[in-house]
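Handover notes (outgoing to incoming on-call)

Open items:
1. Taurine ABC transporter substrate-binding protein: sequence verified, structure written out, both below. Nothing else pending on this one.
2. Nothing else urgent.
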Amino acid sequence: MSTLNRFKYLLPSLALAGVALTAQADEVTVAYQTTVEPAKVAQADGAYEKATGSKINWRKFESGAEVITAIASGDVQVGYVGSSPLAAAASRSLPVQTFLIAAQIGSAEALVVRNGAGISKPADLAGKKIAVPFVSTTHYSLLAALKHWKIDPSKVQIVNLRPSEITAAWQRGDIDAAYVWDPALGKAKENGKVLVTSTDVAKWGAPTFDAWIVRKDFAEKNPKFVEQFARVTLKAYADYQANPKAFATNAANAEKVARITGSKPGEVAALLEGNRYPVASEQAKILAAPTVKALTDTSAFLKDQGKVDAVQQSYTGYVNGRFVQTAGK
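Taurine ABC transporter substrate-binding protein structure tokens:
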């Protein structure tokens, strides 16, 4: 069964069942992805463990849909997801809250077309095979781009592949294009060209972001852990924003980020520039009307595309800015 179908059919029953947590506050499982961002240095340094006093089991996932499924099962308490899988989860009433915006996505996600595939303009995508992880931010961006270009998605062969699977399929020549993030994006660029980035798609009215989310029941029982987790993350963002070039070109930082994400140390600086990382003074404002609106708009789009069956009357309950407010003090 595809990731999308597993996510679609597993999530509702688990969310409604109120599955008990399997980890206590002194041992927490955190789902991360291979997105290149400043806090990966803090993760490598063990800063989260030092700040929280907890044992953290870091589990790597290849897509937000997989993270959501793990959180729904109770195996994971805190997770890193994109706005599209988050909107889908909220639309299906998964008991989670967004407590920190990890990145406002730009050129770090892009649609790359293979050299020699005969694609020089958007109209050439008709009949071509495009790979994308379903229910991800890139999936949402791909559908939004096709809508902008007035291309019927049914006229394109869209296949559901995880980033590692995209890389393998690209190397075999099985796909003509892919909308993905690094390190798979970088590998595709080696013999392909960027047709559009998420910076462009955001300008067309479909912005995307990455976020840290937490199970509501876990947050209620362990608010200090969530607050300290946010504080460590925001410190990393502040360190980066203070001097992006120095942070990114620091050999030790680059090596740590590359080790966790699978990227190359020499690529880290450019990859970090592909997104924007809101600092503490910006988080509270973003984690209010803007995030609620983004989830509302994304959910409506996903419903139009048949990716979710219904939408919530309000997404306010899926956003909680109090942890970044206290963490920023």
